[in-house]
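Morning run. Coffee first, then this:
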Amino acid sequence: APTGPRSLDLDVLIANLRQLQHAKKGVQVSISEYDIMSICMKAREILAEEDMVLSVEAPTNVIGDLHGQFHDLCRLFDQGGWPPEKQYLFLGDYVDRGKNSLETILFLLVLKIKYPEKIHLLRGNHECASIN
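And here it is:
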């Protein structure tokens, strides 16, 4: 687990993950285990501080069931506007089925860390150990 003082460079992480948007099939993004653990720990802190019932102001784009479809997520942002200009509520089911489950959830978590008031994440049934 991350123990040092090194901070996450969110802009670099976002840029690295967005490379997948226009990449050819089979292209992978390299993110260190340290960064993955740091993203998860920081996102967990932010999510733990949020109320159990979210109050989200309009206008908000509501997105459900991404299931690891990273390219669909980017297409939704292209059409609806990218954070922080637009606000999003994601209804869960970020992983499973698609080829980019890890990249999809990491991208959303990095965006949540960078724009905590613009990205809202709910837990779906696919974010359970019994499902995945």
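The longest strand covers residues 61-63. Good start to the day.
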